Amino acid sequence: MLYHAVLGGLVYGLYFTLVGLGLNLMFGVMRIVNLAHGDVIMLGAYAAWALFTAWAVHPLLAALAILLAFTAIGIPVYYLIVPRLLRARDAEMLSLILFFGLQQIIEAAATIAFGTTERSIPGRVLGHHPVRILGQVLPAAWVWAGAVSAVCVAALYLYLYHSPPGMLTRAVMSNREEAKASGIDVDRVCSLAFGIALALAGIAGVFAPFMLGSVTPAIGPDLNIAAFAVIVIGTLGNPIGTVLGGIIYGVSLMLMQTFLSAWANLLPNLLLIAVLLVRPSGLLGRRVRRA
Amino acid sequence: MSPEPPPLLEVRDLVKRFGGFRALDGLSLDLRAGEVLGLVGPNGSGKTTCINTIGGLQRPDGGVVTYDGRRIPGLRPHRLSRLGINRTYQSPRPFASLTVRENVLVAATEGCGSTPPDLDTLLASLGLAGQAARPAGELNSAEQKTLDLARALATAPRLLLVDELAAGLNPTELLRMAERLRALADRGMAILVVEHLMGFIERVTDRVIVMNAGRAIFGGRLAEAVRDGDVKRVFLGGAHGG
């Protein structure tokens, strides 16, 4: 049972890495806190659900479409709000207020559009049989979610560390002012990162109906707390550190659900409080904070 | 005697005010390709302000800066860098989490208006080849100063502004840095050097301008400067006659 919980937790944790990844990328590059991150995930979930119900679009195909659509939508949204926000004196604080407002609007609009009914996509779409991994049986949807998350992490890593725009993105993360002085088009770099962050949230949304069982327009804030727990554990502003946070989160959640299931929902908050008390800079600490 | 080519950089009556304080009070200077000009003077005489104003970090309040026959009033540093003007900083500020090579690569791709030099050759010539894959934040201060120079050189400048590059270097590093700047000038680069270490100035520069209170009080060779009465008064204080 312990072994099953740990293995399941690793796969689940990979998924929660994806849940936190976009939030952390956005904070790392722009130093703004997207409180509507969970609602972008919710929108991704509804997009996948709508595509499946209307045209029986396979979720993996939906994920690809959402990747392109959310990036394309994210770039103009960036130019609409972020440059103005970053010119403010206390952008980090104001971003909390702005995105809190956006979160409320998105949730209300989604409730009007989709109603409060719980929506789900049948798990068999992603495979009829559970998958055996290392002697343990896991739902096929989990394995797909974990695999897609791993691909997203790897793709983000390749983007940041092995592509020219990724190098400029890290330069902006390292020192925004110096990046500007060096002639880097900071807005172009940031708008792309903003679009990618939304796309990562959207892809996480595609798998939310499977990982959470069902979705409603109100799941945003809960997902956001999970995402915060993951990125604070895994060091704020370090997208790759998110993997560590996600896996610790996933394994702890599975252990809680297995042995202390009544308390499992408290876990994100407990982990957040514990990390903030013991290591406020995150487990990887300062050394890699600006990596 | 053949007519001299026009100077690459012409500064006329440059004024920069900070509130009521005139950091530059009508400074003029010329700099030709292949020439190294030193700016010396006591603290607060306006040397760094001069570099910051020419380099686009601060807007002048008066006067004219002409580069390559073209007036460059108030252009931002990255625009100047693409025109062939770049600089080093008193305190280097590399991208700490990028590797040494990536720092130079960013400079070359974003700040170079012509063909950038071969980066590996550049790093090797500055003795940074062995550090190329290390994050810039891990370098010691002498290496960071050298990286700052490498970032400036990666943009293939024709005019290089050097702000206290020598401070903090040990005697061996100083000697090597002086030779590097001399070699760059010999290949046609115009270099403006602000420095406190007179040994370094003597080794590197063709001539110097001595500044005091935002004005040039002497222009010529360093050896002559130390015999000049005004210069003596400024550096030693009091009335030394002469």
From TrEMBL, chain A:
<dbReference type="InterPro" id="IPR052157">
    <property type="entry name" value="BCAA_transport_permease"/>
</dbReference>
<keyword id="KW-0029">Amino-acid transport</keyword>
<feature type="transmembrane region" description="Helical">
    <location>
        <begin position="189"/>
        <end position="212"/>
    </location>
</feature>
<dbReference type="GO" id="GO:0022857">
    <property type="term" value="F:transmembrane transporter activity"/>
</dbReference>
<feature type="transmembrane region" description="Helical">
    <location>
        <begin position="40"/>
        <end position="57"/>
    </location>
</feature>
<protein>
    <submittedName>
        <fullName>Innermembrane translocator</fullName>
    </submittedName>
</protein>
<dbReference type="GO" id="GO:0006865">
    <property type="term" value="P:amino acid transport"/>
</dbReference>
<keyword id="KW-0813">Transport</keyword>
<keyword id="KW-0812">Transmembrane</keyword>
<feature type="transmembrane region" description="Helical">
    <location>
        <begin position="94"/>
        <end position="117"/>
    </location>
</feature>
<feature type="transmembrane region" description="Helical">
    <location>
        <begin position="137"/>
        <end position="160"/>
    </location>
</feature>
<dbReference type="GO" id="GO:0005886">
    <property type="term" value="C:plasma membrane"/>
</dbReference>
<keyword id="KW-1133">Transmembrane helix</keyword>
<keyword id="KW-1003">Cell membrane</keyword>
<feature type="transmembrane region" description="Helical">
    <location>
        <begin position="63"/>
        <end position="82"/>
    </location>
</feature>
<keyword id="KW-0472">Membrane</keyword>
<feature type="transmembrane region" description="Helical">
    <location>
        <begin position="266"/>
        <end position="285"/>
    </location>
</feature>
<comment type="similarity">
    <text>Belongs to the binding-protein-dependent transport system permease family. LivHM subfamily.</text>
</comment>
<feature type="transmembrane region" description="Helical">
    <location>
        <begin position="12"/>
        <end position="33"/>
    </location>
</feature>
<dbReference type="Pfam" id="PF02653">
    <property type="entry name" value="BPD_transp_2"/>
</dbReference>
<dbReference type="InterPro" id="IPR001851">
    <property type="entry name" value="ABC_transp_permease"/>
</dbReference>
Automatic annotation (TrEMBL), chain B:
<dbReference type="InterPro" id="IPR051120">
    <property type="entry name" value="ABC_AA/LPS_Transport"/>
</dbReference>
<protein>
    <submittedName>
        <fullName>ABC transporter</fullName>
    </submittedName>
</protein>
<dbReference type="Pfam" id="PF00005">
    <property type="entry name" value="ABC_tran"/>
</dbReference>
<dbReference type="InterPro" id="IPR003439">
    <property type="entry name" value="ABC_transporter-like_ATP-bd"/>
</dbReference>
<dbReference type="GO" id="GO:0005886">
    <property type="term" value="C:plasma membrane"/>
</dbReference>
<dbReference type="InterPro" id="IPR003593">
    <property type="entry name" value="AAA+_ATPase"/>
</dbReference>
<keyword id="KW-0067">ATP-binding</keyword>
<dbReference type="GO" id="GO:0005524">
    <property type="term" value="F:ATP binding"/>
</dbReference>
<dbReference type="GO" id="GO:0016887">
    <property type="term" value="F:ATP hydrolysis activity"/>
</dbReference>
<feature type="domain" description="ABC transporter">
    <location>
        <begin position="9"/>
        <end position="238"/>
    </location>
</feature>
<keyword id="KW-0813">Transport</keyword>
<keyword id="KW-0547">Nucleotide-binding</keyword>
<dbReference type="InterPro" id="IPR027417">
    <property type="entry name" value="P-loop_NTPase"/>
</dbReference>
